[in-house]
Amino acid sequence: MKGDAKSMVVKNKDEIAIMREANQIVAETLIEVKKHVEPGVTTWELDKIAEDICVSKKVRPAFKGYRGFPASLCVSVNEQVVHGIPSRKCKLKKGDIISIDFGVEYQGYFGDSAITLPVGKIDPETQRLLDVTRTSLELAIAEVKVGNRIGDISAAVQRYVEDSGFSVVRQFVGHGIGAALHEGPEIPNFVQDDRSPRIIEGLVLAIEPMVNMGTHKVKVLKDGWTVITADRKPSAHFEHSVAVTAAGPVILSSRESFE
Ligand code: MG
Ligand code: MG
After folding, report:
1. Centre of ligand 1 from the C-alpha of residue 147, in Å
2. pLDDT, average across residues 44-57
3. What is the mean pLDDT of residues 120-132?
4. Which residue among 80, 124, 145, 196 is least crowded, i.e. fewest CB within 10 A of its CB?
5. For residues 68 and 110, is the Cβ–Cβ distance under 8 A?
6. What is 13-251's CATH number, 3.90.230.10, 2.20.25.90, 3.40.50.300, 1.10.10.10?
7. What is the distance in A from the centroid of ligand 2 to the CA of 239?
């Protein structure tokens, strides 16, 4: 999601520890929802699963009510890029892809992460779109070093995605995260002309490449939320919340302990 220009906020170790807990709840929820992604399930049912976990873990789903967004998950199917609204009418079928974006507020801090999943067997080019997008996030995270610039993250994503024959979305960007869901800096997935901010210790960055199979251009549907590709070709989205430490990047939303 894109906010207004916001300032960067450095976190101490205790704050980062809380943010790790928040993001681990996000990671566990994504894995739980993933188990239910199969032909025939509705995106509304997936949203209920996430919502129930929020209730049981006593966390607030971060997106619900955000500027009026009506659900806990953003679910974006096929040509939908981001911010799709869960619906009883949207039943997944074999060959679809679904991006699931989820965030929570826990003890005053936010977690935010996203994955894109195949529904049953998908065609090889769409699988490559998912693989390239996931790898572009890994390459981006490798640039999270004190002294680098945000533009190093942007360049890593753009170079790999475009070399792979796909395009990066311009209109929506990653963001700092902390006691607010969206803090500075903005983290574009493409290189801009101006000099971007230096990466400093204590920032937490929500890095989220959105990658389209065709044109990078997108538009927003009449519901005011759902972003789709202008050419209706598929789009993928992966996101991690990553802490900047002196020892390097720490992926707070890592799903390792749940997979
Ligand atoms: Mg997100
Ligand atoms: Mg985000």
Report:
1. 25
2. 98
3. 98
4. 124
5. no
6. 3.90.230.10
7. 7
